[in-house]
Specification:
mainly alpha; single chain
């Protein structure tokens, strides 16, 4: 048989000072709960409350990745425009257009990609060192 879901029909009213309410709001913001009711029910019923923590050591890595993405986006856009123009050429495109495109790729995209690869390797090494330190 199917279980019948019960609606919550009982109210629990409490009064708080503004500072107390602000503290609860701040704590709610650090959890995975979406509403104040869910959070308080979990606290009152002794259920586990998952608190999100932020690894501030990764801030520099994330900032660097955002900059790399900003650097790569215009290069990718230029590449897409070049390929679109070549494909829009009536008939068969001139081989010189393709060689020019390949030069652009080699000149702009390759250095950026190798720089990203190097940085990602450095960040991966740092991350792995951190994991090894935590396990020790």
């Amino acid at each position: 048989m199917e279980e019948k879901a019960e609606n919550r029909c009982r109210w629990l009213n409490i009064r708080l000072k503004p500072e107390e309410y602000k503290t609860l709001e701040t704590r709610l913001g650090k959890t995975t709960f979406q509403t104040m009711s869910e959070y308080h029910r979990a606290l009152l019923m002794g259920k586990p409350v998952t608190v999100l923590t932020r690894d501030q050591s990764m801030d520099e890595v994330l900032q660097e990745l955002v900059l790399l993405r900003k650097e790569l986006n215009p290069i990718g856009n230029n590449l897409n425009q070049a390929v679109r123009n070549i494909n829009a050429a009536h008939g068969f495109p001139d081989p010189r257009l393709w060689s020019t495109l390949l030069e652009v790729i080699h000149g702009k995209l390759e250095p950026a990609m190798s720089e990203i690869r190097d940085r990602m390797k450095n960040y991966a090494d740092l991350w792995l060192q951190k994991l090894k330190a935590e396990k020790a």
